[in-house]
Amino acid sequence: MAVKEMIYEGKAKKVFATDQADEVLVSYKDDATAFNGEKKGTIVGKGVVNNRMSNHLMQMLEEKGIPTHYIKELSERDTIVKKVEIVPLEVIIRNKACGSFSKRYGVAEGTELKQPTIEFSYKNDDLGDPLINTYHALALDLASEAEIAEIERLAFAVNDALIAYFETIDIELVDFKLEFGRYHDTIVLADEISPDTCRLWDIHTHARLDKDRFRRDMGDVEEAYLEVYKRLGI
Ligand code: TMP
Questions:
Q1: CATH code of residue 30
Q2: How far is CA 171 from its chain centroid?
Q3: Are residues 37 and 125 in the same domain?
Q4: Atom 20 in ligand 1: which residue has the minimum CA distance?
Q5: Buried residues in 113-139 as b, exposed as e (16+ CB within 10 A)
Q6: Which of 14, 17, 15 is nearest to 4 (CA)?
Q7: CA distances from residue 48 to 10, 36, 70, 148, 182 in whole angstroms, order as listed
Q8: Is the pLDDT of residue 106 over 90?
């Protein structure tokens, strides 16, 4: 497999073409941003943790019947994934109130929700990823009704699998963001599952082991990523 030109550079990853038309190489960076790129920094070692953690979790999800973009880990920062067309929706599942949900609805962070919630943001940096509902997504032709139904089904299945998995390493899954892609007429889980995209709390102390430490200047950011990495035992 030969790596070719860079086709995209995002805030946390670079994507390169390969000699396989339907495969790309994703390379994870240590760059960190928050608030739509307003806050910038570096989390040393983050790229390694996020790459290896995401691959580990995607393989676990595949075993549970959830289709993902994962193909093969090449090195500690580089992975071959299916070349998908990203559906421009950020899909957020919440088990407890936190972050923008707490702010918007006036619910204290950490409040248990009666049932998990799902919400969609329109993935558009120029607009700051605004919250939208499924009618908006259909009206803007971001996805079809069948695709949205499949995305919702898969997102809740991912939630069930991840809650159970993280419990085994004493981590509570508060909320997380997923992205999905189109690959040969099917919807597959894409992007990453990492402390950048999940809120992960220690089950006993409720210590935050995720990017909120960077977003909120809480300190010990690298330590939190390494703690999750260590617990994964990968
Ligand atoms: P929020 O409470 O700020 O809306 O975040 C919900 C979840 O989504 C949280 O686990 C962090 C994750 N997230 C991202 O992965 N990318 C983003 O750009 C934002 C705003 C949140």
A1: 3.30.200.20
A2: 16
A3: no
A4: 35
A5: eeebeebbbbbeeeeebeebebeebee
A6: 17
A7: 16, 23, 16, 32, 26
A8: yes
Same domain for 207 and 114, yes or no, is yes
DSSP state of 111: P
Regarding the beta carbon of 197 and ligand 1, being less than 6 Å apart is answered: yes
> Quick one: which of 199, 226, 162, 209 has its CA closest to 30?
226
Q: Which residue matches tokens 């920094």?
A: 41
User: What tens digit of pLDDT does each residue of 126-156 get?
Assistant: 999 999 999 999 999 999 999 999 999 999 9
Q: How far apart are CA 52 and CA 229, in angstroms?
A: 8
Same domain, 44 and 129: no
Q: Which residue has the tokens 């892609």?
A: 181
Bridge partners of 117? 94
- The protein residue whose alpha carbon is closest to atom 11 in ligand 1 is 197
**Residues 202, 172 contacting (CB under 8 angstroms):** yes
What would you report as the CA-atom Rg of the chain, rounded to the nearest whole angstrom? Answer: 17
Q: How far away, in angstroms, is 105 Cα from ligand 1 center?
A: 16
Q: What are phi and psi of 49, to 5 degrees?
A: -60, -50
Question: Mean pLDDT across the stretch 71-87?
Answer: 98
Domain count, the chain: 2
Q: Tokens 């260590």 identify what position?
A: 230
